[in-house]
């Protein structure tokens, strides 16, 4: 299993890159969102990868964070969702948006991805709702893929590693952990944090906890 690649981009296409790792070129397919964050040809990048093997094909898919890779794995576990559909969803919503949509049961947000119909979107939300809290909580425990790239190329010319940008998710993860410590169930906590984060995307952990607690408070 190839879990991560760090190397020089030799070629960029609309939906994939060719990454040279020690003289071996790997074709890595990425979502539109990830492609937009990658550096140009000749620069170093690092991606977490997932290898999909079929009878007639082997393909590598790349992700800037382990959280996004995990969402890809879970999305593909849903009947009717292949790699192309998963990348379309992640490209449209991003990993945070996927978690928020599933935690809130918002299948219309999932349906906004190209090629995703209402039945598939509803199935995704139903099948993955109980798994959303665990993936959302990963945001505080994993780092984005950055440069453990080599400091020198084969010709000894200096290479400056390029960081692949990814939005921080630790505030949501920390808020989920705090609500869990207060006794709230994972699904309820995830839905409240997702809604709070959607209302205030830049909120820090304390603000998310306060907003989520208000949402979880008994009505009436």
UniProtKB/TrEMBL annotation:
Pfam families cross-referenced by the UniProt entry: HHH_5, RuvA_C, RuvA_N
Assembly and binders: Homotetramer. Forms an RuvA(8)-RuvB(12)-Holliday junction (HJ) complex. HJ DNA is sandwiched between 2 RuvA tetramers; dsDNA enters through RuvA and exits via RuvB. An RuvB hexamer assembles on each DNA strand where it exits the tetramer. Each RuvB hexamer is contacted by two RuvA subunits (via domain III) on 2 adjacent RuvB subunits; this complex drives branch migration. In the full resolvosome a probable DNA-RuvA(4)-RuvB(12)-RuvC(2) complex forms which resolves the HJ.
UniProt similarity note: Belongs to the RuvA family.
Entry comment, domain topic: Has three domains with a flexible linker between the domains II and III and assumes an 'L' shape. Domain III is highly mobile and contacts RuvB.
Residue segments, region Domain III: 169-220
UniProt-listed CDD domains: UBA_RuvA_C
Subcellular locations according to the entry: Cytoplasm
Gene3D superfamilies per record: 5' to 3' exonuclease, C-terminal subdomain, DNA helicase RuvA subunit, C-terminal domain, Nucleic acid-binding proteins
Keyword vocabulary terms for this entry: Cytoplasm, DNA damage, DNA recombination, DNA repair, DNA-binding, Hydrolase
Sequence ranges assigned to domain Holliday junction DNA helicase RuvA C-terminal in this UniProt record: 171-217
Name recorded for this polypeptide: Holliday junction branch migration complex subunit RuvA
Molecular function GO labels: DNA helicase activity; hydrolase activity
Residue ranges annotated for the DNA helicase Holliday junction RuvA type domain, each copy included: 1-62
Database matches in InterPro entries: DNA_helicase_Holl-junc_RuvA_I, NA-bd_OB-fold, RuvA, RuvA_2-like, RuvA_C, RuvA_C_sf
Region (Domain I): 1-64
Functional summary from the UniProt entry: The RuvA-RuvB-RuvC complex processes Holliday junction (HJ) DNA during genetic recombination and DNA repair, while the RuvA-RuvB complex plays an important role in the rescue of blocked DNA replication forks via replication fork reversal (RFR). RuvA specifically binds to HJ cruciform DNA, conferring on it an open structure. The RuvB hexamer acts as an ATP-dependent pump, pulling dsDNA into and through the RuvAB complex. HJ branch migration allows RuvC to scan DNA until it finds its consensus sequence, where it cleaves and resolves the cruciform DNA.
């Amino acid at each position: 299993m190839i879990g991560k690649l760090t190397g020089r981009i030799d070629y960029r296409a609309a939906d994939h890159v060719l990454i040279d790792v020690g003289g071996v070129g790997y074709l890595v397919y990425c979502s539109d969102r990830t492609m937009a964050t990658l550096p140009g040809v000749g620069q170093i990048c690092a991606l977490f990868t997932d290898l999909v093997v079929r009878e007639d094909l082997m393909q590598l898919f790349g992700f800037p964070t382990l959280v996004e890779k995990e969402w890809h794995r879970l999305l593909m576990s849903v009947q009717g969702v292949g790699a192309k559909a998963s990348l379309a969803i992640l490209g449209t919503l991003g990993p945070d948006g996927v978690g928020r949509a599933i935690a809130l049961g918002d299948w219309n947000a999932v349906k906004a991805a190209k090629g995703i119909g209402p039945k598939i979107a509803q199935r995704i939300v139903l099948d993955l709702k109980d798994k959303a809290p665990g993936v959302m909580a990963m945001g505080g425990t994993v780092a984005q893929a950055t440069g453990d790239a080599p400091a020198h190329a084969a010709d000894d010319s200096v290479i400056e590693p390029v960081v692949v940008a990814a939005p921080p998710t630790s505030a949501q993860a920390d808020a989920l952990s705090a609500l869990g410590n207060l006794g709230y169930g994972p699904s309820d906590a995830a839905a409240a944090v997702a809604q709070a984060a959607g209302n205030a995307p830049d909120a820090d952990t304390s603000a998310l906890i306060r907003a989520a607690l208000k949402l979880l408070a008994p009505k009436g």
